[in-house]
Write a structure and sequence with these properties.
nine-stranded mixed beta sheet, zinc ion binding, signal, GON domain-containing protein, ADAMTS_ADAMTS-like, metal-binding
Length: about 500
């Protein structure tokens, strides 16, 4: 047969059909052939044609009034790869710009400057920017002419993750005198800090910057000794937090020379001692990313140690700036050890199982030319976990890399094919939880779905590794949705 009549989409393949004399093997008139004439054409498909693909619309070009939004339009092939625009239809037009309307412009508007560099390379710093009131020509005018309710913020937090080493200061001692000028002292040590923000015991010399070392002494004064009234302090109360960071309070009162309490305005406010101070009650570990967010100032996504059951486990917290951060297990092994696959080859004779069930080669003679339309595969770097129930959520694709024609993704721990109806599965999946502190529970099972579906599941290293082969004609396997893909705490 000739090649397909088109380079993409649906076309026709044709061939010559002649009436031949069997004795002489020469072509004769078609009237001499009595049987039904074979067809000389058949349909063919060369894959999806190149097409225009539009990206997302950008932001409006103006902050008020009528502006313009733009988007990128690319020519892509059947695998969504960008190619030369000459391959896409020239008559097809896709808008790259559109009109957008913002709030009505007033005579005066706020103009935002660029954010500055963060004030700290780690820890909890701030960024600043200028916000000025301008007229329609862009000239700066008095700020009272602009709407103060619409003024953009001029600072924001940044570098919201702990420094690896900090100068840790102890509480100030009581003033060395009850009146007049005295001295206070405190301890200053350089200590290591965990990614969760917890201070480790012990000193780490030469790890902190000497130029940032806090002072160890300061002057104090509760009032002149000749004064009729003085500030008097009571002992500090317990820290407000049972663990982690909290606040301490104490009572500060104004007294006369006889020690009797009097009204505050009788004491000089400049000499008033502090009544609140921060305190640290040792490390405490949260049981969820949301609780961890409430206990600390950390707002950066990352791996943190949380308390799971009676042990500490490293959990990746995602969307720490949102109201409900999500938990994931970071898979330490390569993506080739954590994958799911729907195999693409299809047998011409589906009731067979050639090569003793071994996977066919790329040039499989027993296979059809066209692969299974739903063939796909996925690799996983992290997997979502519901910590209260210790259940993996296989359908979460946030940290997966998916390939295949269909947008529908293949879940973690799933596999399938449309290869054979003779107990010969070729679709594969692999789960590898080595060095994560978790293992697949013995109560986890897999469900089969499809025509003549079959599966073979292997459990290795006490459930830290699960290998599976699944398929049918067509068939898939996936973790049982009723019981869920459960995990248990494994030895480190």
């Amino acid at each position: 047969m000739d090649e397909c009549s088109v380079s993409c989409n649906h076309g026709i393949r044709s061939r010559a059909v002649k009436c031949m004399d069997r004795a002489t093997r020469k072509e004769v008139d078609i009237r001499h052939c009595q049987d039904e004439r074979p067809r000389n054409t058949r349909r063919c498909y060369r894959g999806r044609c190149p097409r225009w693909r539009a990206g997302r619309w950008g932001k409006c070009s103006v902050s008020c009034g009528i502006g313009e939004r733009k988007r990128e339009v690319r020519c892509v092939d059947k695998r969504n790869r960008a190619i030369s625009p000459v391959y896409c239809p020239s008559k097809t037009t896709i808008n790259t710009t559109m009109t957008c309307k913002r709030r009505e412009c007033t005579l005066y508007n706020w103009q935002k400057g660029l954010w500055s560099q963060c004030s700290h390379t780690c820890g909890f710093g701030k960024k600043h920017r200028s916000v000025t009131c301008v007229d329609q020509s862009g000239s700066r005018v008095s700020s009272h002419l602009c709407d103060t309710d619409r003024k953009p913020r001029i600072q924001r937090r940044c570098s919201e993750f702990p420094c690896p080493f900090i100068w840790n200061t102890g509480p100030w001692s009581e003033c060395s005198t009850t009146c007049g000028e005295g001295r206070q002292e405190r301890t200053v040590t350089c200590q290591a800090v965990t990614p969760e923000g917890w201070i480790l015991d012990g000193e780490v010399p030469d790890s902190c910057r000497q130029g940032e070392r806090p002072s160890e002494t300061r002057y104090c004064n509760y009032g002149h000794c000749s004064a009729q009234n003085h500030w008097t302090v009571k002992p500090w109360r317990e820290c407000s937090a049972k663990c982690g960071y909290g606040r301490q309070r104490r009572l500060v009162i104004c007294t006369n020379k006889e020690g009797k309490r009097i009204r505050r305005n009788n004491c000089y406010s400049l000499f008033k001692p502090v009544s609140r101070r921060p305190c640290y009650s040792g490390n405490c570990y949260a049981r969820s990313c949301l609780e961890f967010k409430r206990l600390t100032k950390v707002r950066k996504d990352g791996d943190y140690k949380l308390r799971v059951g009676d042990k500490l486990r490293k959990i990746y917290c995602r969307r720490m700036r949102s109201r409900e951060p999500k938990e994931y297990i970071s898979l330490t092994q390569s993506p080739r050890e954590n994958y799911a696959e729907v195999f693409g080859k299809r047998l011409r004779q589906p009731n067979t199982c050639p090569n003793d069930g071994k996977r066919p080669s790329a040039d499989c003679e027993e296979c059809r030319r066209r692969d299974y339309s739903e063939a796909k595969n996925a690799t996983f770097a992290k997997i979502r976990i519901d910590l209260p129930t210790l259940t993996i959520i296989p359908s979460d694709k946030t940290f997966s890399s998916q390939s295949g024609r269909w947008r529908r993704t293949i879940p973690y721990g799933s596999a399938g094919d449309c290869y054979s109806a003779n107990n010969c599965p070729q679709g594969r999946f692999s789960i590898n939880l080595v060095d994560t502190g978790f293992a697949i529970s013995n109560n986890s099972s897999w469900t089969l779905h499809g025509n003549r579906a079959s599966q073979r599941i292997w459990r290795l290293k006490d459930g830290k590794i699960i290998r599976g082969m699944c398929g049918g004609y067509c068939g898939v396997c996936f973790p049982d949705p009723k019981s869920g893909l459960k995990v248990v705490l494994a030895d480190d």
